[in-house]
Amino acid sequence: MNVARSAAELETIPRAVAIGTFDGVHRGHQHVIGAAVETGLVPTVVTFDPHPRIALGYGVELLSTMERRLELIAGLGVAETLVVTFDHDLQQCEPEDFARDVLGAIGAEVVVAGEPFRFGHRRRGDLELLRGLGFDARGVPFLEGVSSTDIRLLLHEGDITAAAGQLGRPAEVEGTVVVGDERGGTLGFPTANLSVDANLLVPAFGIYAGSALGTPAAISIGTNPHYGGRERKIEAFLLDFEGDLYGQRLVVELWQRLRNEEVFDSEQALIDQIARDVEATRSATRPA
To answer: How many domains does one find in the chain?
Structure first.
């Protein structure tokens, strides 16, 4: 998939454009994007970075990084994606100007968005305005029972099974592998320690079974209370992997929440429990 950062980078050709933030690319977003793909025109996504709420100074926990969002969009059969910078100028842009300078400039004929969709200065633009400007603007109803807000709540509760049902894939944690305290190696379970973007949502503390780099992974999210830790850490033990991951980006899937964090009577008791977590990870299945 070709990714552009300005309309000038894309040809003016007949396109079906799905427009939205699409954070997390959950099943509802997939439905909107799929409607553009099905038209037979060049399937294109127009999305925004940073997230509009973050740009406007409001807090929001992202379900995916931009890099991951683009990977997920590419997997839906999209040919090209235009990432529009959401800044003060865009916030003040009149919807007619946005329609001309962005949608019209890349050749959009069909514009697809989730209902209700608003854009432009003071959120004055909508699908009806686009129709008045000559676009075939199509609203796609949101899927019942699927919302980014609900997914965030489920992840905070550690209910990754229900979250996966709305996402259409397992919940994920993504970050860069950094040097940790290296305690896992001394216990016989060397872990990859993740540093994650400050705006990215991290699910509830606990021990999870999942996967990374195509191999089973036992994941700890929390503070390591057995050692009196206070700082949140995300550690993944990749069961069948050997190699140096330092500095690499890693996407970890969470398949099953195994248990809460615990303080153990001894280090051997901790090692024994980790071994049981590893066995549970081997038998875990990926959510549909």
So the answer is: 2
